[in-house]
Design brief:
By secondary structure, the protein is of the alpha/beta class. The chain is 41% helix and 10% strand. An 8-stranded mixed β-sheet has the order 3-2-4-1-5-6-7-8, sandwiched between helices. The protein binds guanosine-5'-diphosphate and magnesium ion.
């Protein structure tokens, strides 16, 4: 229908990490948790509360020569850019602005998952600018589109402050496959580069593979993973918090099993995980991150609302922006269910997750990539 969708998408993601086939045995721990599901019973002394663990023997593997984050962000957002910035500049550039062009642009913004409200707002702004400044060609609209988009998404930029608590307990939640475990692996590296010590809690107790996956990320980052053979997610995370406290660790990253908001018993289970964290540390959890796969587009909004109602989401991680042409979902979130967008992921390798910076995001959407391709 639109010329701008005809260009083949460029994929620049690094080779996927093979994280699901670890041979490393998961740690088996004794839990200090009452398996009946009542309040956890802390062990008599701190040492006893430290379960067995896997300490990473192997040094992290070094990724191949890396482009800068800005370059990877641009490469990751190339599909969305083709629709918004690149599409506008390259395909509409010569065209005179008229209502038909605005209509096509409206469709483009909807396809990029900006949502109806944001799209209408942007089109109104563009139309006003066109009339007021007597703009002629579509490419002249690009600057307005970029600055209006920036205004919409800028409020989501709120860095995660982990300095107020030790350990700072960060719990991750989301549907299956959204990128929780991978994001924990990347965050472990990120926080370590900030000079923080990190401990991982293998709170996805539903699948052994999930535990192994986290263990492998622990090895890659050379950090401790608290895991348990089966059992209760809340118990594992409770143990991990005690272990972190006993060792003076700065940050606990707690993984959880994926679940759909419609699976009410599982939503109740994760609400219980949250309550048990608060029993281990009354001030915690200090951050409840909802991990969203950007490919799901507008469905992200429903997930934010449902998880927020169940566990009080304090921040978002938006993954897989590299695989989608739907980066506009950031604007839809900003408009409809604003939560701090703490991190965005644009690939599978360990450095492909970084704090969200609105200006950088918009620049990556509208500036051509270093190789000149859109
Ligand atoms: N392309 C891409 N893949 C990602 C990203 N984040 C995670 N993945 C992949 O998504 C898949 C599911 O991730 P996983 O962390 O296991 O999801 P979980 O079920 O939420 O724990 C894995 O193959 C990851 O490598 C990202 O930002 N970009
Ligand atoms: Mg997982």
């Amino acid at each position: 229908m639109f010329g701008l969708f005809k260009k083949p998408a460029r994929r620049d993601t690094a080779a996927p990490s093979d994280i699901s086939r670890s041979d490393t045995p998961a740690a088996e721990t004794a839990s200090s948790f009452d398996s009946a599901g009542a309040a956890p019973v802390p062990a008599a002394d701190a040492d006893a509360a430290i379960p067995a663990e896997t300490v990473a023997p192997a040094p992290a593997e070094t990724p191949p020569a890396k482009r800068s984050w800005a370059e990877r962000l641009k490469a990751g957002l190339s599909r969305t850019r083709q629709q918004l910035g690149g599409g506008l500049a390259n395909l509409f550039g010569w065209r005179k602005i008229d209502e038909a062009l605005l209509e096509e642009l409206e469709a483009t913004l909807l396809m990029a998952d900006c949502g109806v409200g944001v799209t209408q707002h942007l089109i109104d702004k563009l139309r006003a600018r066109w009339k007021k400044d007597r703009l002629e060609t579509a490419s002249q609209l690009q600057e307005t589109l970029a600055s209006e988009l920036l205004q919409i998404i800028a409020p989501l930029e709120e860095a995660l402050d982990v300095s107020g608590h030790k350990p700072c307990i960060i719990m991750l939640a989301g549907v299956n496959g959204s990128g929780k475990t991978t994001s924990i692996g990347k965050l472990a590296k990120y926080f370590q580069t900030q000079g923080k010590s990190v401990l991982l809690a293998a709170g996805d107790t539903f699948r052994a593979a999930a535990r192994e996956q986290l263990t492998t990320w622990g090895e890659r980052n050379n950090v401790t993973v608290i895991a348990q053979d089966g059992g209760d997610a809340a118990a594992v995370i409770f143990d991990a918090i005690n272990a972190a406290r006993a060792r003076g660790i700065d940050i606990v990253l707690a993984d959880t099993a994926g679940r759909l908001p419609t699976q009410l018993h599982l939503m109740e289970e994760i609400a219980k995980v949250r309550r048990v964290i608060a029993k281990a540390d009354p001030s915690g959890p200090h951050e409840v991150l909802l991990v969203l796969d950007a490919n799901i587009g507008q469905n992200a909004l429903a997930q934010v609302k449902a998880f927020d109602a169940a566990i009080g989401v304090t921040g978002l991680v938006l993954t897989k922006l590299d695989g989608t042409a739907k980066g506009g979902v950031v604007a839809a979130i900003a408009r409809q269910c604003p939560k701090p967008l703490r991190f965005i992921g644009v690939g599978e390798s360990i450095d492909d997750l970084q704090p969200f910076r609105a200006r950088e995001f918009v620049d990556a959407l509208f500036e051509p990539a270093a190789d000149g391709k859109t």
